[in-house]
UniProtKB/TrEMBL annotation:
Annotated CDD domains: AAT_like
Needed co-factor(s): pyridoxal 5'-phosphate
The protein's name: Aminotransferase
Family annotation (Gene3D superfamilies): Aspartate Aminotransferase, domain 1, Type I PLP-dependent aspartate aminotransferase-like (Major domain)
Database matches in InterPro entries: Aminotransferase_I/II_large, LL-DAP_aminotransferase, NHTrfase_class1_PyrdxlP-BS, OxyQ, PyrdxlP-dep_Trfase, PyrdxlP-dep_Trfase_major, PyrdxlP-dep_Trfase_small
Length: 373
């Protein structure tokens, strides 16, 4: 005799936040109706060409009938270690302290699960943050607290603390003292610190530091993970290319689970990543493009009466008119400009909008003209 399930299956998606972008349909329609077309600054999706050196490497590796390695090729791991040292002054990493991921969103969404966290564990997420930190904690069934300072945690010891400097959405940079404090505190308690360093190469008015930098870690990477995306600095969002680096013991544990789960970066993408990590020239050019767009857009927003807060680094301007963010969204949509409401990133964002620098020079110029008209 067959017995029916007594407990209906709960869809996994029911435990996740609603995908908020669907709520922008009305303002998007308004912005689209502008006679000179929409300037879409609502998402951070890169628009600039992929550097030829990277495309060539991808094409040259297209004959790849076998499975890729989960750990990444030795060349990829070496290139990542070297790039971290050259670009960000991170020393003391060995090749087994680096692991490629299928874009860092994938890693962030699964990190608590990969680390074996569950309902008894607490994950600390910045108060204004990239939504996937929370998604990852929910997928693991872990508890979540939004906090920017350790004192907010009280006596509770979390399993995992997220840092994101420069921040999405605010562009705020955490100083060396703050980073050292978190690292020291976490080290005493055996807490893993995952530092999302997606925008580390895009410092404007402040110099962002990696959690692995010797001035923060004193050369001891125990319990530390730095998450690096190639999506923004190399315009490789479409390739799905990133890596995690840090404590070799934690990286080995991630590798062991990812091997079983088939979380492998395709071989041609691994080859493209090697090319991207070895070549600093295209990365500097990309940075210069964003710097130029920021130089135009920031004063234009200010001249239109918006106050730009934080925004000292990264790919976004965190702006406010001192009113509910949906009103600012509507005001900008009237001018054909679409931005993201700050409330997407946490309850403290209700009066801000996030303005992305990821549009073509032509579209940025159109936005500037409309804002300064
Ligand atoms: C803070 C932050 N982390 C991670 C990501 C994910 O990047 P990717 O999955 O393209 O590596 C993003 C993307 O916008 C981001 O803003």
């Amino acid at each position: 005799m067959t017995t029916a399930r007594t407990k209906p299956r709960q869809p996994r998606s029911a435990s996740l936040p609603v995908f908020p972008w669907d709520t922008l349909a009305d303002v998007t329609a308004v912005a689209r109706s502008h006679p000179d077309g929409i300037v879409d600054l609502s998402v951070g999706t890169p628009v600039d060409p992929v550097a030829p050196v990277i495309r060539d490497a991808l094409a040259a590796a297209s004959f790849s009938p076998g499975y890729p390695t989960t750990a990444g090729t030795p060349d990829l791991r070496r290139s990542a270690v070297d790039a971290l040292e050259r670009r960000y002054g991170i020393t003391g990493l060995s090749e087994d302290a680096v692991l490629p991921v299928i874009g860092t969103k994938e890693l962030i969404a699964w990190l608590p699960t990969l680390l074996g966290l569950g309902p008894d564990d607490l994950v600390v997420v910045p108060e204004l943050a990239y939504p996937t930190y929370e998604v990852g904690a929910r997928l693991a069934g872990a508890q979540i607290v939004l906090a920017d300072s350790l004192t907010q945690l009280g006596p509770r010891t979390p399993a995992l603390v997220y840092l994101n400097s420069p921040s999405n959405p605010t562009g705020k940079v955490l100083g060396v003292d703050h980073l050292r404090k978190v690292v020291g505190w976490a080290r005493e308690r055996g807490v893993v610190v995952a530092s999302d360093e997606c925008y580390l190469g895009l410092g404007w008015d402040a110099e962002p530091l990696s959690v692995l930098h010797p001035s923060v870690s004193d050369g001891d990477h125990t319990g530390l993970l730095a998450i690096h995306s190639l999506s923004k600095t190399s315009s490789l969002a479409g390739y799905r290319a990133g890596f995690v680096a840090g404590d070799p013991a934690v990286v080995a544990e991630l590798l062991a689970v990812r091997k079983h789960a088939g979380m492998m970066v395709p071989t041609p993408v691994q080859a493209a990543m090697v090319a991207a990590l070895k070549d600093d020239e295209h990365e500097r050019e990309q940075r210069a493009r964003y710097a130029k767009r920021r130089e135009l857009l920031l004063p234009a927003l200010q001249s239109a009466g918006l106050t730009v807060d934080d925004s000292e680094a990264g790919l976004y301007l965190w702006a406010t008119r001192g009113e509910p963010c949906r009103d600012t969204l509507a005001w900008l949509a009237q001018r054909g400009i679409l931005v993201a409401p700050g409330e997407f990133y946490g309850p403290r964002g209700t009066k801000h909008v996030r303005v992305a620098l990821t549009a073509t020079d032509e579209r940025i110029a159109a936005a500037v003209e409309r804002l300064t008209a």
